[in-house]
Amino acid sequence: MTDVLTPLHILHFHVMEKLTKYLADVCAFRYNLALPMTEKQIRKMSETVDHQTIHDLLVEIARKAGDMVAGAQPHVNTSGYKKNSADLVTETDRAVEKYVIGKLKEVYPDYDFLGEETYVPGKKLTDRPTFICDPIDGTTNFIHAFPNVCISLALCVYRTPVVGVIYNPYTTHMYTAIKNQGSFLTMPVRTDSPNTPAPIAPRKIRLPRKSYPEPLTGLQNALVAVEWGSDRTGPNFQIKHRTFTRLVGAVEDGGKMVHSLRSMGSAALNLCHVASGQLDMYWECGAWAWNVAAGWLIVSEAGGIMVDGNPGGWTPAVDCRRYLAVRAAPDGQKELVEEFWGCVEGEMTYNV
Fold first, then answer.
1. Do 100 and 65 contact (CB within 8 A), yes or no?
2. CA dist., res. 129 & res. 124, Å (int)
3. Which residues of the sequence carry a binding annotation for Mg(2+) (predicted)?
């Protein structure tokens, strides 16, 4: 007996094909599960990435997400936490990331997504175009109404940041970068004179803010940013503690006597301050790709460098979780990195 495809069979196959695709799309949207792709498919997709269009979209999303953040009223007693009481999360974090995912999936449904609030342990950054989102970098600041808070958005291709946008909704400072096109800060600037008051207008400034940055002349003349992080015990924390002590200690006691340490609660904004030239360097170990991807590009495009937070790593991966950023300078970057590495006693390890 010969099998014959009847119209009913054909309709059944057609419906099942549509249903399978629909379920795959739903899973990809709801759980950020990217369907497998071949190297050829990834290369073809990467070649069609329009960096400027994506930059403009991320700027628009960041501003609207920033309105959500600025309009929220978080409280210490109503926030939750993940690992411990220093690793905080709010409903606004989740709402912002949900909004970001929705807007990006509307336009780029085939791109992967890596976000802090929807991260699944074990998920890796891959070669395919991937949006990376930290909905609120500086959640502790946000809860305490300390206005050093931002949304950080990036696009990575082949695990390299190619577009980065960081927006502080309280200061309305917008930091942006496109690979090979430089880094910029758009900020409100008063345009009035004493005799002719005028409204505040946005001004776009190329980074670093000083056209001719000074040379770096060692840790003793450096302003350094660090963060304590939420892990407050164990070998990694002990290495951090010893390193901080050595950085601020007097020279006669074996310290480096840096000008000062700054701990402002936002990895992304710390990187922006390095890119601007306001910080000489920033050391961060324990952060995630969503904390640093956009800032990584902004630092690099401003003439700064990103190296491993552990000694010896000159070419770290964006998701290595250990970072040392150094501002632009006509000379002294390499020497400052090596001097800093000399202060780190031990090697920090993190799950990726």
1. yes
2. 13
3. 116, 134, 136-137
Q: Which residue has the higher pLDDT, 88 or 205?
A: 205
Domain 45-206, CATH: 3.30.540.10
pLDDT of residue 41: 84
pLDDT for 230 equals: 86
Distances (CA, A) of 348 to 123, 151, 228, 247: 21, 27, 14, 17
Task: Count the residues in the chain.
Answer: 352
pLDDT exceeds 50 at position 30 = no
Q: What is the pLDDT of residues 296-306, one digit of tens each?
A: 999 999 999 99
Is 137 labelled as part of a ligand binding site? yes
Q: Is 136 annotated as a binding residue?
A: yes
Token code pair at residue 137: 């970098």
What are the CB-based long-range contacts (under 8 Å, 24+) for 304-311? 304/208, 304/274, 304/275, 304/328, 304/333, 305/333, 305/337, 307/337, 309/283, 309/284, 309/285, 309/344, 309/348, 310/285, 310/341, 310/344, 310/347, 310/348, 311/341, 311/342, 311/344, 311/347
Q: What is the pLDDT of residue 89?
A: 74
Per-residue buried b or exposed e for 32-64, using 16+ beta carbons within 10 Å of the residue's own CB: bebeebeeeebeebeeeeebeebbebbbebbeb
* Neighbouring C-beta atoms of residue 320, cutoff 10 Å: 18
116 is in an annotated binding site: yes
Of residues 13 and 316, more confidence is placed in: 316
Q: Where are the domains of the chain?
A: 45-206, 219-342
Residues 57-97 have pLDDT tens digits of: 999 999 999 999 999 988 765 556 665 555 567 899 999 99
Whole-number pLDDT of residue 151? 98
Q: Are β-strands 112-115 and 183-190 bridged in parallel, bridged antiparallel, or unpaired? A: unpaired
Residue 109: name the closest of 176, 27, 191 by CA. 27
134 is in an annotated binding site: yes
- CATH level 3 topology of 219-342: D-Maltodextrin-Binding Protein; domain 2 (3.40.190)
